[in-house]
Design goal:
By secondary structure, the protein is α/β, with parallel strands linked by helices. Helices cover 37% and strands 23% of the residues. Pfam families: Hydrolase_3 (PF08282).
């Protein structure tokens, strides 16, 4: 099988514990792109927080793509243009805000390349550090969020957040796509939007078949794209539920996991 596309999650998958791509993995990614493989960064992160890495990996030079906000936006790195953009309406975001308040969890959204919330905590600080985006603490979330936005995240202690996830799915699961990414991040996007559905739209646009796609992940929000890939793979540090649906398990994100995937699935004779 000749694979034409590699799609990878970022945090705890492509990126090591220092938030970097190892030199060895970077070299392997370059080699794959030089041989015509399209490389896609697929993350819950905002586009803003993925641009530097896309430049570092020369995705613009090779015509590769960013799939950000859990699939809500797809960006062609060569042109810098979005080829897909799915948003939550202002009213939907306000509904999620009300749910968060009723269930004692923090909520953030993204407005004009800034993170918006009425709260600030160690969990929100993680997102600010990961994305390097400006943070704006506001007094009235609904008043400030006066237009459509791409997604929301609810944040709280992991065990409690699992309970909130169940309740959110029960009450509003028919209105939104809902997934835990990091244990303390509950991500909400437009109904029907996830990494898998958006990946299929991109592949269809490029004339790439599902069995020509390698996907690499580690966590729950990667499940939709792992399920649509011909070759679902994961890093060794992935959650057990993720390993159970993968055909190839690589080394960890701290041990050049991407290189092993590329060497074994792209270049192995």
């Amino acid at each position: 099988m000749k694979y034409k596309m590699i799609v990878t999650d970022l945090d705890d998958t492509l990126l090591n514990s220092q938030g970097k791509v190892s030199d060895k993995d970077k070299e392997s990614i370059m080699k794959a792109q030089e041989n015509g493989v399209i490389f896609v960064l697929a993350s819950g992160r905002p586009t803003y927080a993925m641009r530097d890495l896309a430049q570092e990996l020369k995705l613009d030079k090779f015509g590769s793509f960013i799939l950000s906000y859990n699939g809500s936006i797809i960006t062609n790195c060569k042109t810098g243009k979005n080829i897909l953009e799915e948003t939550l309406t202002k009213d939907e975001i306000h509904l999620l805000y009300d749910f968060s308040k009723n269930n004692n969890v923090e909520i953030i959204t993204y407005l004009d390349d800034s993170i918006i919330s009425e709260d600030y905590s160690s969990y929100i600080e993680v997102e600010v550090e990961l994305t390097k985006m400006p943070f704006e603490k506001v007094k009235n979330f609904k008043a400030v969020v006066d237009k459509d936005c791409v997604k929301c995240i609810m944040l709280e202690e992991p065990e409690y957040l699992k309970q909130v996830e169940k309740k959110l799915n029960s009450e509003l699961g028919n209105q939104f796509s809902i997934a835990i990414s990091k244990p303390f991040f509950l991500e909400v996007t437009k109904l029907g939007v996830d990494k898998g559905s958006s990946l299929l739209k991109l592949a269809n646009k490029l004339g790439i078949q599902q069995d020509e796609i390698i996907v690499v992940g580690d966590s729950y929000n990667d499940i939709p794209m792992l399920k649509v890939a011909g070759m679902p793979t994961c890093v060794e540090n992935a959650k057990p539920e993720i390993k159970n649906i993968c055909k190839f398990i690589s080394t960890s994100n701290n041990n050049n996991g991407m290189t092993k995937i590329i060497e074994n699935l792209i270049f192995k004779k």
